[in-house]
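Tokens in:
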């Protein structure tokens, strides 16, 4: 039989569990934004505390406001310009393909189709079939309208959700900068209570890993954007500076840069510059996109003090499990696991 003391204790435990579950349920839709705000704060807190805050006389609210304004300039303003450029590019693509909708395809495909390896004959035969029959062209267009409409709707939803998430990130990161000392003290205090010296080591390891991953992502984006801008200038693509910035931002996602240099190659081909279009496609495939496979793991590993294998497995596995935020969570989890395993093996091994 349970006495009154045991019953009271069980009730207290049940209330605590319900409170934790309720907090998780409330915060769950915003986990991605909260973690991203925390990542930005972790990567920039020391520089903000040691350099900007003393120049402002220690005024936390003013410093936090300036950091939010800086983030708006860095994240939001280029995104708006990029969206405008994409709309303009879409108008150009529509003008480019409109004659094919109105007049049909030419009887013969472009000559360079014959140089496509493995599938040249099939592609040419399909072109002849579609070009010779208006019904076949209409059927092909109808098949492409539904997926294109779904893609545009999905892209619009993603863009709207991204803007809302970004607004939430800016809102949260203001309070992280303003109350940064309190947050840092709470993190290290909680880690010290839970794990002592090991807990503090875990916090330091997580902070170093997050900084290394951010360094790898931003460094790779800068390298890809710079190299892409050079290629756009060489090929004579329109607005090469804007396309370079688009490559920088879209390099955060795996298929981002090909959308930019591939679109530039299509524009060059539609403008009658077939040679430069082929150059742009090869340059993007062999140089721009290859940077992501070489520079990013090296920068992440060097910044986080981890092996390239741990970083690569953490990034790919984290993305598969958690989505975009898994780029940061995956390496952090593996780094903490490696630290715990190393500590356990060191304690278990004879002195």
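Residues out:
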């Amino acid at each position: 039989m349970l006495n009154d003391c045991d019953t009271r204790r069980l009730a207290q435990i049940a209330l605590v569990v319900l409170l934790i579950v309720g907090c998780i349920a409330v915060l769950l839709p915003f986990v991605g934004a909260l973690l991203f705000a925390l990542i930005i704060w972790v990567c920039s807190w020391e520089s903000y505390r040691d350099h900007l805050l003393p120049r402002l006389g220690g005024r936390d609210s003013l410093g936090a406001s300036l950091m939010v304004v800086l983030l708006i300039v860095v994240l939001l303003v280029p995104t708006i310009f990029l969206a405008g450029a994409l709309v303009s590019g879409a108008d150009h693509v529509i003008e480019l393909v409109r004659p094919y909708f109105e007049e049909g395809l030419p009887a013969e495909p472009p000559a360079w189709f014959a140089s496509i390896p493995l599938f040249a004959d099939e592609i040419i035969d399909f072109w002849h079939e579609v070009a010779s029959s208006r019904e076949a062209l209409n059927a092909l267009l109808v098949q492409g309208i539904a997926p294109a409409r779904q893609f545009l709707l999905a892209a619009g939803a993603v863009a709207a959700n991204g803007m809302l998430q970004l607004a939430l990130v800016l809102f949260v990161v203001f309070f992280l900068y303003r109350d940064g000392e309190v947050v840092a003290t709470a993190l290290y205090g909680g880690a010290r209570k839970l794990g002592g010296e090991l807990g503090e080591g875990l916090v330091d390891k997580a902070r170093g890993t997050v900084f290394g991953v951010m360094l790898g992502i931003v460094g790779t984006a800068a390298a890809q954007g710079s190299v892409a801008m050079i290629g756009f200038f060489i090929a004579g693509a329109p607005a090469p500076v804007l396309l370079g910035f688009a490559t920088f931002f879209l390099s955060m996602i795996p298929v981002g840069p090909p959308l930019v240099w591939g679109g530039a190659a299509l524009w060059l081909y539609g403008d009658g510059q077939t040679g430069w279009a082929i150059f742009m496609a090869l340059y993007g495939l062999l140089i721009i996109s290859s940077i992501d496979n070489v520079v990013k793991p090296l920068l992440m590993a060097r910044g986080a003090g981890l092996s390239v294998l741990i970083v690569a497995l953490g990034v790919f596995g984290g993305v598969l499990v958690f989505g975009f935020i898994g780029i940061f969570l995956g390496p952090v989890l593996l780094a903490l696991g490696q630290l715990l395993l190393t500590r356990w093996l060191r304690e278990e091994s004879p002195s």
